[in-house]
Amino acid sequence: MVALIMDIGVQGLNIGDTAGPDETRRLAQLAESLGYHSWWASDHVVLPSPRVDPSPSEPDTVIVDPLVHLGFVAAATTRLQLATGIVILPQRNPLVLAKQVASLDYLSGGRFTLGVGAGYVEPEMTAVGVSFDDRGARTDEYLDAMDQLWHAPAPSFAGKFVSFSGVDAYPRPSNVRVVVGGHSPAALRRAATRAQGWFGIGTPSDIRGHLSRFPEQPSGFRISVSAPVPLTPAVVAEYADLGVDELVIYPPMFDGSVDEVLKRNAEFTG
What we know:
This protein has one domain (7-269): TIM Barrel, CATH 3.20.20.30. It contains nine helices and eleven strands. By secondary structure, it is of the alpha/beta class. Strand 1 (7-11), helix 1 (21-33) and strand 2 form a beta-alpha-beta unit. The protein has an eight-stranded parallel β-barrel with strand order 1-2-3-5-8-9-10-11, surrounded by five helices. A two-stranded antiparallel sheet has the order 6-7.
């Protein structure tokens, strides 16, 4: 067994054949027993039908809502950290999402990380009534509004897309971290100024390039990366040298069954 270099997570198993209740419970408990640090769930409310680029999947692909899925995983596990990788934030009502996040954090015992992104599939965004051109501005504003509802003594917010005052919501989250996904300049800025971490995708070379464009990171900032290459001691060390805190694997990308991939990569969990 190699020495622990960083945390290892798993993602995307709320999609396709692994998304049913029995498989979800079994795989989440397997990942926890093997020492995985985190379990990340993906998000698409609807998909274009017929499929058009850049849609990631066929329209009949099963994608369980990430917050519902993670609530199920929370009940089936005790230590596994839970995260959205990512929620398409401008498609969600920020007050409703803030309540869902606080509730999931509360019921999981503080195990939840909210990963968000601005989205990239225009037909999906149009279908839920959100302007594709406004997605970045909405993402910024929604993050600020949720922060108010989670942390302000007397929450209030006045913005272009959301306004509220004279309301409050409990439970307040105890330990929710926000991470921002994406590689655009706006996403990197958003991560550095409105979040506690960044969720990237790419090879070590890709990540090196993204990090070279990153604004100054606040103290305690955490970098999580979805690794599209098989993990080896050398590859893991290369990511670690870049300052990556956590590697997240997507088992369907690799040879073998999900069980085999999880067991094979468990050597990197310490």
